[in-house]
Amino acid sequence: MMIIMKPSATPQDVERVIEKIKSVGLAVHLSQGVETTIIGAIGETHSLPTDTFEVMEGVETVQRITQPFKLASRQFHPENSIFPLDGFTVGGDELALVAGPCSVESRSQILETAHAVKEAGANALRGGVFKPRTSPYAFQGLGEEGLELLAEARQQTGLPIVVEIMSQVQLDLMVEYVDVLQIGARNMQNFNLLRVIGETQTPVLLKRGLSATIEELLMAAEYILAGGNKQVMLCERGIRTFETATRNTTDINAIPVLKSLTHLPVILDPSHSTGHFDYVAAIARAAVAAGADGLIVEVHPDPAHALSDGRQSLKPEKFAAMVRQVGQIAEVMGRRLATVKIPAHG
Ligand code: PEP
Ligand code: MN
Question: Is the pTM of this model over 0.90?
Answer without folding.
Answer: yes
